[in-house]
Write a structure and sequence with these properties.
elongated, 10 strands, six-stranded mixed beta sheet, alpha+beta, 17% strand, four-stranded antiparallel beta sheet, 337 residues
């Protein structure tokens, strides 16, 4: 009986051993499969989303084509004020700005003529309820404010708030210059040629705004430097400036150094038609007229020389004098040629 129990026990153990082995193999297989799934997921490339990643600045074709707050003409007028703020831009043509509905701004490219050809500057203006200059690219400093003056054509500004001072059929023409300024001497040649061409149409006044003269004062003193200004002021009172100035300029060029003309050099240029009594009385008080010229230059925003004014409301650079004059006065004889 006992032998029979032993045999049955051994048979049961032999029967269960295959099941243990199978179970163990199954568990190992499951663990390996799970590990493979995790390992492959780590190196799987992420799937492409159904919608592309949005870009920060959508292209114009993706924007709703809205209506700008300001008209094209209003934007162009404001652009002309921006250009009037920069002296070098005043030599440029006024471009037609374009409106971008995506960023709600007007933009334009300004082509600035230079000795090397041309430079380009990009201007952006925000289309806010009050048009606002956003930025001027390729410029070092953005202006603190935008001028109220407007550029009307190359080199010609319309001064805001200034009243026409011409009378009758003659256009009042004012020159602001410095007798010793090299660019002024060069500009005088252009101005003299213009006056000869339009002599019957303009009433000319000469005003002195010291520039080079101020620098000379440090070395030679105010009285010696200002003497030429006093002489020119008193010559103009007797309508003899055109007789005196070419001689004085020629003597200054002949010196070959940046030094004021002496009294003797200036006296040698006095025209024979001069009323010496009136002249001698004028010179000691001419400093008052020189101060008035400085004040007048400030009134019209003239800070550099040479500059020409027409009608007391158009400020023109000498190199654009004829084109600016004819643009603003197209009815003048000689402008339709």
């Amino acid at each position: 009986m006992k032998r029979k129990q032993i045999i049955e026990s051994q048979a049961a153990q032999a029967w269960t051993k295959p099941y243990y082995a199978t179970a163990i193999l199954f568990v190992v297989a499951v663990v390996i499969l799970f590990a493979l799934l995790i390992f492959s997921a780590m190196f799987q490339e992420p799937s492409t989303p159904e919608t592309p990643t949005p870009v920060p600045f959508p292209s114009p074709t993706q924007c709703t084509q809205g209506t700008p707050l300001h008209s094209l003409q209003e934007a162009k007028d404001y652009l002309s004020r921006v250009m009037a703020t920069y002296r070098e831009m005043s030599r440029s043509d006024i471009p037609t700005p374009t409106y971008n509905s995506c960023d709600k701004a007007w933009s334009a490219v300004i082509r600035i003529p230079s000795t090397g050809g041309e430079r380009r500057t990009y201007i952006r203006i925000n289309d806010t309820p009050a048009l606002l200059l956003d930025n001027v690219y390729l410029e070092i400093v953005k202006p603190a404010y935008v001028s109220e003056d407007r550029l009307v054509t190359n080199g010609t500004l319309l001064l805001t708030g200034k009243i026409n001072c011409s009378s009758g059929s003659l256009v009042r023409m004012m020159e602001f210059s410095d007798p010793y300024c090299p660019s002024c001497i060069l500009g005088d040649g252009r101005i003299d040629a213009f006056r000869r061409q339009f002599n019957d149409s303009v009433d000319f006044d000469y005003h002195i705004l010291p520039s080079t003269m101020q620098v000379m004062e440090n070395s030679y003193g105010r009285e010696d430097v200002n003497r030429i200004a006093y002489y020119m002021i008193c010559m103009q009172k007797q309508h003899l400036l055109d007789d005196f100035k070419p001689c004085a300029v020629q003597k200054y060029r002949a010196k070959g150094v940046e030094a004021p003309l002496s009294k003797e050099e200036l006296d040698s240029c006095l025209p024979s038609a001069l009323n010496t009594t009136e002249f001698d009385a004028c010179v000691p008080t001419a400093y008052q007229e020189l101060a008035f010229d400085k004040s007048m230059a400030e009134t019209y925003g003239v800070t550099e020389t040479p500059v020409v004014l027409f009608d007391c409301k158009y400020r023109v650079l000498p190199e654009y004098m004829e084109s600016g004059f004819c643009f603003t006065h197209p009815w003048i004889s000689g402008c339709n040629q």
